[in-house]
Amino acid sequence: MTKPIIFLQKEFRTEFIDKIQAIAPNYQIKTDITAEDLSAVEISVGWTKQFSEQLLASDQLKWVQSISAGVDYLPLKEFSDQNILLSNGSGIHALSISEHIIGILLSYYRGLNQSIKNQERKIWDQGAISYDQLAGKNLLVVGTGHIGQQLSKSIHSLGVNVYGINTTGHSVDGFVETYSIKNMAKIVPEMDIVVGILPGTHETYHIFNSDIFEKMKKSAVFINVGRGDTVHTRELITALEKKNFAFAALDVFEEEPLPKENPLWNFDNVLITPHISGLTVDFQNKFMKIFLTNLKSYVADKELSVNQVELDRGY
């Protein structure tokens, strides 16, 4: 009888291949795969469109371990219909994204962004550099999961007051106060910084829209490192044109790469980064802590012990 396959859709170091094999000796581990192999895949680490149709056509696929935290790009309905387990990489990118956000805020408030532009033009003009103080600012984290909690922890020592938004408004350690997502528009006017760290779901689609942007302080900063489709791009552009708030830093977009003709490129008060906030040092080691933990529980009883995604909710 052919052994079931663990299909690694990403290259991993030999040390991790060995650990996988030690935990699951009755499985084959493959990174290169044939059409015939696909029908024997029980566990897929990662997911690409190239193999999606064949894997879903098989009745052998039982578990997908997503490499990313967000899973909105996956065929969640098909997974649910076929009782396929799904786990994600939530938590891996928390420190990297937190440092990305803090770097943006320090650069903005200390005038470093303008200084970089002036250096390119060899301009020495101290009076042209606007500056402010990050300490004492009210920061609203929209999405109080792993990343939001790490951001709160990391930025606390800089004297920032961190508030949170989540689905129900339940309290979370490290936040001054938390509110339900339905009350976000009421809280935004009190905030100096609004950071989106939301997954892409039906409930979060275009949740950052004109209703939110028009209620922000004129001096406020908006940062999005969650999913691109949580922001209504056209309404964001309108808000920037109307100067509803002072500055936006965007790492994710509804369409990636961001088209050259998109007006967002042309704003002086917008920082665009090419979906890099989650790039993580020693990613393989961090990811494998999640996968190997789940693999042990899956081999033992066909259940997952960490980061299992609720398919109907999308996270």
Characterization of the model:
It is a single chain. The chain is of the alpha/beta class and 315 residues long. It folds into two domains: 5-91 and 282-301, 3-Layer(aba) Sandwich (Rossmann fold); 94-272, Rossmann fold (3-Layer(aba) Sandwich), CATH 3.40.50.720. The protein is built from eleven helices and twelve strands. Strand 9, helix 9 and strand 10 (221-224) form a beta-alpha-beta unit. The longest helix has 19 residues, at 283-301. The two termini are 36 Å apart. This is Phosphoglycerate dehydrogenase. Pfam families: 2-Hacid_dh, 2-Hacid_dh_C.
Computed Rg:
22 Å
Instruction: Give the proportion of residues in helices.
Output: 25-40%
Q: What is the CATH class name of the largest domain? A: Alpha Beta
> How many domains is the backbone divided into?
2
Mass-distribution shape: elongated
User: What is the CATH superfamily label of the largest domain?
Assistant: NAD(P)-binding Rossmann-like Domain
Mean pLDDT: 97
| pLDDT < 50 runs, ≥5 residues | none
- How many helices? 11
Q: Which topology of the largest domain does CATH recognise?
A: Rossmann fold
Known CATH architecture of the largest domain: 3-Layer(aba) Sandwich
How many β-strands, per DSSP? 12
Residue share in β-strands:
5-15%
Amino-to-carboxy terminus distance: 36 Å
Q: Structural class from helices and strands? A: alpha/beta
**SSE order:** EHEHEHEHEHHEHEEHEHEHEEH
Question: Strand order, biggest sheet?
Answer: 8-7-6-9-10-11-12
Largest sheet: 7 strands, parallel
